[in-house]
Design goal:
By secondary structure, the protein is mainly α. The protein folds into two domains: about 50 residues, no CATH class; about 60 residues, no CATH class. It is built from four helices and two strands; from the N terminus they run H-E-H-E-H-H. The chain has a two-stranded parallel ribbon with strand order 1-2. Helix 1 runs parallel beside helix 2 and helix 3 packs parallel to helix 4. The chain starts with a helix and ends with a helix. The relative contact order is 0.17. It comes from Cinclus mexicanus (American dipper). Keywords: Oxidoreductase. InterPro entries: NAD(P)-bd_dom_sf, SDR_fam. It holds the Pfam family adh_short.
């Protein structure tokens, strides 16, 4: 939703293979279908990713490196605000992990 969906729509309009990295399968798949229909680009795909979980980041990055022949652009757009204080299963503060640590780890893992 929001900025991420707009960026994905623009990339798909430019005929780019576009991977939507979403926490929720149903919402993500709805976005994929909407973007495919609006752009005519069938190369829009969904992969699950929760940047608030470093384990999820590692699984996602591993799959991208294994399945994709190249990665030209990475848009780190995930973020949360206003959540109550919470600690992740990895012992990290949830908002900080989602907004900073997860995207930082993802970028570094995808650099190869």
């Amino acid at each position: 939703a929001g900025i991420g969906k707009c960026v994905a729509m623009d990339l798909a309009r430019r005929n780019a293979r576009t991977i939507l990295a979403c926490r929720n399968w149903e919402r993500g798949q709805a976005a994929v279908e909407e973007i495919r229909a609006a752009t005519g680009n069938p190369a829009v795909v969904l992969r699950l990713l929760d940047t608030g979980s470093l384990a999820s980041v590692r699984v996602f990055a591993s799959a991208v490196l294994r399945e994709e022949s190249r990665l030209d652009v990475l848009v780190n757009n995930a973020g949360v605000t206003g959540l109550p204080f919470a600690i992740t299963s990895e012992g990290l503060e949830q908002t900080f992990t989602t907004n900073y640590l997860g995207p930082f780890l993802l970028t570094n893992l995808l650099l190869g």
